[in-house]
Each structure stands twice: as structure tokens, then as C-alpha cells.
């Protein structure tokens, strides 16, 4: 009798074990299946991004030919450039971009000077129909409309708009409870700069770089936030444009660069330089010319500095991030280990590709986003080449970006990319060459295109020479 009981008991136990093993197997398979499904979905999404970016790059190539066809009529070309820039601004307004790194959108009724008034508080605006302030200058139909300052007031508080992009927001009794008091040359000397949604160097759509410093001890200069520090440009592109054209600025800066190079006392003859970049580094736009590599900025840099060796790691069409081709972050290890100086120039193709999703943010910095991949690239460079001096350049502003952005509304303004590069480079102690805010070789100026950048984004031999001399001068300044 007991044998039968044990027999049935064994059968029951065995059945339960089979059931449990089966259930566990099904669970494991289910988890595996879900993981595979997620990976398949990611692959499908990435394929869609690559297809979208392929189309964008194809369109850019068409735009380059359009620009080149207008070289014989500079006035017509400038009209075309202004039209595309205006269209891009309209897209930003339509997208609800209130303020981008010191650019402010305010209604016409607020465009008068507000210096010395008793209060500039409690205002609200309709963001559907806003003119644009570039820096502290209000631009309307491409012309200077008015100057704006919000200093010397007893109160500049309680506004739903931002009070940013001004040369000064200082000397006020209160600059508090505003949506934003950001991107200004000065937010200092005030009795109160408290209770604001944002007192940051930059306000960006989709909260890309919005920073709050309420409760911090310092609301001037650099802003500390969540482990990173936003670094505003010393002088913004808009401020420089208000002073002189890019063509004039290019000539002036180039003359200064030449003087710095002439006074160089450092011997670079035993030093190796590596240049990581895209087509602007590779000079592939000149590949139809014999021995075209001699015109690239790395080749010119070698001659200017008398360097022992310069390695050109430029690949046409490549991006910093992994949402396009030949990503910098996947190939920086090709830089020789004995390199003394590393120059990274990129971001142009990223600007032709990236939407909010691929841009990411500075809080989580996930892979396959611009913020994440720039962070990984800079960290990798510092870890792998601890003895090298690293220079990271922001992209040159170019009209093709505006042109493409006017057609593809998911794209972001170029300044986003420059801001992230400056900010992360500051964290890692990497030298920054801020080409974006320098106002040199900016193809929004038809004269720059005619003289130096015939397709609106790539240099001719003279353009690459100027770029090389600028990099050389920055390197000389570092070593002297």
C-alpha cells in the first residue's frame, strides 16, 4: 500500500517539476522574446532615422549646387540667404521656440526701451506672432528694429516671457519671478535675482539646456547644475554680427591670427597632430583637383606650424554621433597613441540629421544621442590620450543648415550643438575653439561664400588656409 502511495507521490512531484520547469522555460523565453522584440524595434527605428538622414544629406548636396550656381551674382545670393534664414526663423516661431541661447521673442508692444521704468512685471504674451531679438538687437524683416535693455528698473519681475539676450539686466531692485532671465551679458548687481523659473545662460526648446539656479549662491557667469556647467560664449554670434559682417570679421581675425603665428616661439617640429573630422577636415569637395589633400586645413596646419607630422582623420559625410555614418565616437581610437595635439572639428552633419530625440539632453547623455556621444567621445579622448592637448571646435555657422531646417522642421538650430560642445568640453578640461560664435567664415554672408566657401559649407583653398591659420593661432596661444 505504501509503495503505491510513494509511487503516486513521485508521479505528482515529477509532474509538478515538469510543470515548474516548463513555466520557467516559458518565462525565460517570454523575457528573451520581449528583449528581441525591443531590439528589433530599435533596429527598425534606427533604420528609419538612417533613411531620413540619407534623404537630408541628398538634399544638402542639391543645395550646395544651388548656392554655387549663384556665385556670379552676390546681391542675388545674399537675398537668397536672407530668405532662407527668415524661413528658418519662421519655423522656430511656429514650433514655439521662445528663446534660443540669448535670442528672445517678444510682442511688438514690448519692443520699446524699458530703462528707468518703475516696473516691467506681470506681462504675458501671445507667442504666435513674435518678432525676434538677436542678442540685444530686435530684428524685423532682416533689419535692426530696436535696442532693448532692462536695467535700472525697480522691478523686472513676474513676466511670462523671458528677459534674456540683453547686454545688461543689472542694477535693478528685483529681477525675480520671471519665466527666464537668461542669456544676458550681465545679470549682476541686482538686489534680487530669485524665484525665477530659469536664470540660465541658455533657454532651449524641449528643455534641452534649460537650467534653473534658484537657491544657488551664484547666478552670474557659469551656472552649476546637476553635475554639469553651462558655459555661455564670451560674445555671441548675434552680437558679433551686429558689429560687422562675417566677411569683415574674417579678414580682421585672420590678420590677427597671422600676427600671433609670426610671434610664435614654440618648436612644433617634433610634435604629432591628429585632426578628427568630416568633409571639412578631409577637403573632399576639392577631390577633382590634383593632389587636393594639400589644400586641406590639416596639411596647411602642418606647414604653418612646421609640425613634424599631421594625421588627417577626416571622412566626408561623417557625424559625431551614431545616428549617421562613420561616427567620430566610434573611430577616435584610430588617432595614433603618440599624438601630441588632437583637433576635433565636427557637428555640421549632426545638424543636418538630428531631431529632439537624437539630440538627447545633458542630464542622462544616453548613447546614440548628440549629448551622449559627445560626452563619450570627450571622455574617451581624455582617457586614451592623457598626455595629448585636445582642441574641440564648434561647427561653423552655415546657411545650408537654415535652408534645410526651413524644409525639415524636426531639425534644431546650430547653436544647440555649439552649446553642448562648449559645456561638455569645459567639464573635461578640453580646449574649445568656438568657431560658431566667432563670426568668421559664416556662409550667411554672401561675400564669404564668394571668396572662401563656394558651396556654402566647404572651403576653397583660401577658405581652408584661413581655417588652418585660425587653428594654428589658437595652438600657438596655448603653447606660448
Which descriptors would you attach to this protein?
five-stranded parallel sheet, five-stranded antiparallel sheet, globular, alpha/beta, 480 residues
In short:
By secondary structure, the chain is α/β, with parallel strands linked by helices.
Tell me about this structure:
This protein is α/β, with parallel strands linked by helices. It is built from 14 helices and 12 strands. The chain has helices spanning 2-68, 74-94, 237-243, 246-262, 279-282, 297-305, 328-331, 348-351, 356-359, 370-384, 399-407, 414-428, 446-451, 461-479, and strands spanning 99-100, 103-105, 132-134, 137-140, 143-147, 223-225, 228-230, 272-277, 309-314, 341-345, 389-393, 431-433. The strands form 3 sheets. A 5-stranded antiparallel sheet has the order 1-2-3-4-5. A 5-stranded parallel sheet has the order 9-8-10-11-12, sandwiched between helices. Strands 6-7 form a two-stranded antiparallel ribbon. Strand 4 and strand 5 form a beta hairpin. Helix 2 (74-94) packs across helix 11, helix 4 (246-262) packs across helix 14 and helix 10 runs parallel beside helix 12. The model is unreliable at 98-155, 157-162 and 185-226 (pLDDT under 50).
Amino acid at each position: 500500500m505504501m509503495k503505491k502511495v510513494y509511487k503516486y507521490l513521485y508521479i505528482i512531484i515529477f509532474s509538478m517539476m515538469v510543470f515548474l520547469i516548463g513555466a520557467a522555460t516559458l518565462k525565460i523565453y517570454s523575457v528573451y522574446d520581449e528583449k528581441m522584440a525591443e531590439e528589433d524595434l530599435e533596429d527598425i527605428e534606427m533604420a528609419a532615422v538612417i533613411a531620413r538622414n540619407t534623404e537630408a544629406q541628398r538634399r544638402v548636396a542639391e543645395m550646395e549646387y544651388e548656392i554655387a550656381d549663384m556665385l556670379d551674382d552676390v546681391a542675388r545670393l545674399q537675398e537668397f540667404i536672407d530668405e532662407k534664414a527668415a524661413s528658418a526663423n519662421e519655423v522656430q516661431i511656429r514650433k514655439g521656440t521662445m528663446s534660443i541661447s540669448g535670442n528672445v521673442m517678444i510682442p511688438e508692444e514690448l519692443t520699446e526701451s524699458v530703462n528707468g521704468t518703475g516696473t516691467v512685471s506681470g506681462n504675458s504674451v501671445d507667442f504666435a506672432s513674435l518678432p525676434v531679438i538677436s542678442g540685444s538687437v530686435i530684428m524685423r524683416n532682416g533689419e535692426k528694429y530696436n535696442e532693448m535693455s532692462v536695467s535700472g528698473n525697480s522691478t523686472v519681475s513676474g513676466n511670462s516671457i523671458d528677459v534674456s539676450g540683453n547686454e545688461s539686466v543689472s542694477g535693478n531692485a528685483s529681477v525675480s519671478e520671471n519665466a527666464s532671465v537668461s542669456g544676458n551679458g550681465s545679470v549682476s548687481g541686482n538686489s534680487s535675482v530669485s524665484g525665477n523659473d530659469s536664470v540660465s545662460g541658455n533657454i532651449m526648446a524641449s528643455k534641452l539646456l534649460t537650467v534653473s539656479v534658484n537657491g544657488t549662491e551664484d547666478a552670474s557667469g557659469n551656472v552649476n547644475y546637476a553635475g554639469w556647467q553651462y558655459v555661455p560664449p564670451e560674445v555671441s554670434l548675434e552680437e558679433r554680427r551686429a558689429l560687422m559682417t562675417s566677411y569683415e570679421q574674417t579678414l580682421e581675425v585672420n590678420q590677427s591670427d597671422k600676427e600671433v603665428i609670426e610671434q610664435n616661439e614654440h618648436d612644433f617640429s617634433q610634435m604629432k597632430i591628429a585632426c578628427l573630422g568630416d568633409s571639412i577636415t578631409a577637403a573632399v569637395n576639392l577631390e577633382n583637383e590634383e593632389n587636393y589633400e594639400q589644400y586641406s586645413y590639416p596639411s596647411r596646419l602642418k606647414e604653418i606650424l612646421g609640425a613634424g607630422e599631421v594625421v588627417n582623420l577626416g571622412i566626408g559625410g561623417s557625424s559625431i554621433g551614431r545616428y549617421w555614418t562613420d561616427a567620430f565616437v566610434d573611430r577616435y581610437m584610430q588617432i595614433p597613441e603618440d599624438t601630441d595635439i588632437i583637433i576635433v572639428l565636427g557637428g555640421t552633419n549632426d545638424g543636418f540629421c538630428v531631431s529632439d530625440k537624437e539630440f538627447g539632453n545633458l542630464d542622462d547623455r544616453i548613447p546614440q544621442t548628440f549629448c551622449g556621444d559627445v560626452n563619450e567621445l570627450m571622455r574617451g579622448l581624455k582617457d586614451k590620450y592623457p598626455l595629448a592637448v585636445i582642441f574641440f571646435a564648434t561647427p561653423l555657422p552655415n546657411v545650408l543648415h537654415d535652408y534645410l531646417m526651413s524644409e525639415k522642421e524636426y531639425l534644431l538650430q546650430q547653436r544647440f550643438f555649439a552649446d553642448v560642445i562648449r559645456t561638455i568640453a569645459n567639464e573635461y578640461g578640453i580646449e574649445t575653439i568656438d568657431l560658431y560664435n566667432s563670426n568668421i567664415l559664416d556662409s550667411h554672408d554672401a561675400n564669404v561664400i564668394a571668396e572662401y566657401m563656394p558651396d556654402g559649407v566647404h572651403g576653397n583653398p583660401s577658405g581652408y588656409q584661413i581655417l588652418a591659420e585660425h587653428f594654428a593661432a589658437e595652438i600657438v596661444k596655448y603653447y606660448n
